[in-house]
User: What shape does this take?
Amino acid sequence: MSVDVLIAEDEPSILDSLDFILRRAGFSIESVTDGDAALAAIRRDRPRLVVLDVMLPKRSGFEVLKQIRADAVTHDLPVMILTAKGQAQDRQTAEDLGASSFITKPYANADVVGTVKRLLAEAAG
Amino acid sequence: MERRKLVSAALVLTLLGALLFMPPLASVFQIHRLVLGVPAEVIYLFTVWVLLIVGAWWLGSRLPRESEDEG
Amino acid sequence: MLSADLVTATGIAYVGLLFLIAYVSDRQARKSKSSFLRSPFVYTLAISVYCTSWTFYGAVGSAARNGLEYLAIYLGPTLVFIGWWFVLRRLVRISHNQRITSIADLLSSRFGKSSRLAVLVTVIAVIGIAPYIALQLKAVTSSIQAISGASAAQGTLRGVDDVGLAFGVAAGMALFTVLFGTRNVDAKEQHHGVVAAIAFEAVVKLAALIAVGLFVVFAGGGLEAIFSRAEAAGVDIYSTGTFDDRWIAMNVLSIAAIICLPRQFQITVVENSDENHLRTAAWAFPGYLLLMSLFTLPIALYGLTSMPAGANPDMFVLTLPLAAGQEGLALFAFIGGFSSATSMIIVESIALSIMVSNHIVMPLVLRFTQGQGVGDGRGVSQLLLASRRFSIALILSLGFGYFYLTRDSNALAPIGLISFCGVAQFLPAIIAALFWKDASLKAATAAVAVGFVVWAWSSFMPSFESASPLVAQLMAEGPWGITWLRPEALFGVADIDPLANAVFWSLFLNTATLVVVSLFTSQSALERVQATLFVDLFRRQGPVGTLMRGSAATGDLQFVAQRVLGIEKATALFAGAGAAAGTPQFIDRLERELAGSIGAASAHVMMSKVVAGSAVSLEEVLQMADETQQAIEYSQQLERTSSELRDTARKLEEANRQLRELDSQKDEFLSQVSHEVRTPMTSIRSFSEILLGEQHLEEAERQKFVATIHKESLRLTKLLDQILDLNALERGKAAWRNVPTDAEAVLDQAVEVCSALARQRQMRLVVDKQGEGASIDADADRLSQVLINLISNAIKYNDAPEPLVEVRSRRSRRHYIVEVADNGPGIARDERTLVFEKFSRGATGTTAAPGAGLGLAISRQIITHMNGRLELVPARGRGACFRITLPLSGAAALAE
Assistant: This one.
């Protein structure tokens, strides 16, 4: 089964909401709650896009991103970073590490869905 | 007494002596009367004189020594 | 009447005794440094050289004519000695430091080692003292005549008139003084033998005067009888009008005299061997003066009432005992008077001869010989002695000359006052030298000269009135008929006493000149250096800085030193210096050593000639020395200031560091709060949008979302509560009351609350209470809050297969201890200190905590408020173990 979007988020309620809105938008979803699991899922299930929280247990979102970019196979995988800190410094780090997009919590659902759509379109195009 | 006060006392003693020996204070005792058979102003001058000597004697040994000089 | 031969023989024998005393004392002084001769009492007695035959004879005459007025001559010196700390001490200290040999040397040294000023001061002193010497000659002459009376016509004195007698006395004195005072040239100009003889004379004159005084009181039937008899005889015993302008003028003069008279300066300052002797002299010398003047008034009054009219009151001391047939007492009194006169003449002429030879003869010789070729090594030494002897002869000749010219005036006292007024002209310059750094050489020279001229005009010249018709005419009409220049009524002020007139105008114009000229002239480099040395006397530490720089061959230096100091002394000096001879320090020391013999100015000229190159650049060098001194003072000041600044800066830095730390903590805290708030906000917003936007939601889903929103808002509220709570705790604002509390009861309550949660999670909660009856000072609700937090954390985060939470309590001697242990994942070693920080959750997620991470921080704050400790201790096995340690009630008080 192909996975459109992998969500890595440790807050259960946020994970629930992301899962709901992206499914509603028509994507197939897989979700994990820590960094290690995220990397494992990416290798195993080859999602077309990853929604990555920064503050993940075991391995932070930035570390996961770094691994993704370091691996030739996943090098071009679109990654959308989610963070509750929202500081300029985090945004910079994300950009430097090669994040495709950066969204601050709390987010508007439409933004998340719109960004995912745009990134997937770009990847396809 | 501490040294500064002693030095002040020495200065006051000197100035007081000068004042007591000069008019108008000295003239106060020109009363044309004998005291103990001696004119009052004579008794006055010699008494002040003796008191100054006693004062200088008292201060002499108490004023600071060389090693405690200022500076 | 006593025979003139007996009197003469007695006088000569007495002089012989003095010579013996001086000789023995000199040898004694050489042998030991701490003999009786150097005691403060000998010093004090020597100072009483102030009491001359003027005191001995003249004071009685003065008292007979002017009542109490004579006392002014002793009250001034009394005040100066009472205030020794302020002037005399400085003079003595400076003179020791600078090797000052005379008052001329003092002023010269202070004002840039000026030889011109030294010459001026010397000339004025010699002229000014001449009347005073004349007074002694007159007194001795009169006393010999008075005591031998009619018999003067017989014996060796037959046919000798008073002029001849005075000449004989002067010649004898000159010879005596030469023998006494110029046997050697001492570097310090100290004459121990002379001082001893003078001290002996002081005892003799005091004893004689008191003997006469007691005799008079006894003969007169007591003080009261003497005074009342005098009053009955029409004598003004109450000294009406004594305390007037003349009284003040005389006091001022005697204050000046005790400082400025060359002989007083010689004894008080130059001959002083120990500054602390002043402490004794401060009261002993005024005491001596008091004793000396105690019987003056009774003697004068008794003389006025018992002696025939026309008897010379100046000689009452002699004539009263004679009239009563007390010839022995009269002879003793004569010896006393003779003592007064001889001691004055000896010391005065020694002091003046030092000035004349050091400041006039030596510079002249140096100039004409170019400082070289005075013959062999002992040349200067010999020359010095010769010039001293010549000076003594000169001084006594001048005294005799004055006596000769004024021999017709009768009273002794006015003559003395003329001299006093003359030397008083040095006082403004001396005071300025000691206390005013800006006083300049030009000003001092001008001031002394102005004072001298005014004195010569208003005080010295009038004393020749009887000898010269020209003077008499000047005094009556003024020069060229200018009446406001009449000597005794200067500037038209005619109705004040002539003495007060002279004293006021001379000192006023003198001081005014000093001040004004100082303000408008500048000082040379050397003057500035010396001014600093004098005025900042007690501020300086260590020896005087080197004033002369340059190189000098040791041979040249030794040559100069030998000629001035003598071979023996010079050799010793150079041997002592060793390799240091020739260094600037040594040259400086040598100069001061030489200054002790030939005065500062001469020594300076001499050394300038020897030390190559220094004469050219002296000004520069001195400027440098001065600037160096200033720089040192400035840098010390800077150092003090900068160390204060450093201190302040350190404190500020520390405060700043703390502020920065607090600031970064605040940033960190805000950022964490922001994160913690955003997390529930995210869910709430997201689900609200879903609920708002999606029309086709299943009811179950809708319910679930609303429940999530509700749960997250509760979480948010709790978070905000905790933040406020923590803030209050940290600032100590929370309402807080520690009261004695039953610890076990609180624990029971907390365990009960948590057991529901444990049951829910199917977890074993083991409670082991061993602290029965422990009473602690605590807030029960807060303690319960902490315990619940710890226990519920232990339950919530325990993921063990057989989860277990243990609560153990016990008490030690002073503490109540509770431990909460679990067999959960535990806390990584490097996080153990972090768990109590705000928002710290196991960062790497080993203890994934749904809380905001404020619980432990709050708990620790609470326990701290109860004077206890909350810490993480090593668990027995797997898991974490928190321990609370609280002091038992009373134990806290015990510990404090």
Observations:
- Chain C is about 65% helix and 5% strand.
- Residues 620-730 of chain C form a domain with the Helix Hairpins fold (CATH 1.10.287.130).
- The two ends of chain C are 99 Å apart (CA to CA).
- Chain C has a mean pLDDT of 80.
